[in-house]
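Protein modeling request. Please complete all fields; requests missing the sequence field cannot be processed.
Requester role: graduate student
Desired output: 3D structure, token encoding
Chains: 1
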Amino acid sequence: MDLFEILFWILTIGAISSALGVILSRNPINSVICLIATFFAISGHYVLLNAQFLAVVNIIVYAGAIMVLFLFVIMLMNLNADVEPQKSRLVQFAGIISGGILFLVILAALRDSKINGVLEKSSNSVGLIENLGKTLFQNYVLPFEISSVLFLSAMIGAMVIGKKEPSNDLPERSPNQN
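Delivered output (178 residues):
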């Protein structure tokens, strides 16, 4: 076993165990923290696949911004196991059956797939940011500029919609009030 294969298996075990922690944790805040750990493990897989840009974007966008948003929503909703309604036995049984069927489908798909040389180290620079930038600005410069104008107009529209208009409904002051 070489170093990349060892790192792959460490990241895989970490991702699977933290994903199980998301599902099995009764505390919603612990579930969010386990999901953040899952995102970091997946970002490690991206680095092993020589896709550094995807790894950084995954950490910044998902583990950073979206998980913080989820955490704030969970904390504002004040969810805990005491308030949460208990599931009936029929719903639990249906969940176990559907999970078992999904597991069998995944096993059948893995059995039929051929896994030869999946963990070979990539020597090319497919996922590097430099190649992404060259492709983006050489081949797709017009769609890139059109999308930037679209995003700019969306930001301006959001500011116009969110802007408070001055209220003319203020009560008039009588001459006796100071």
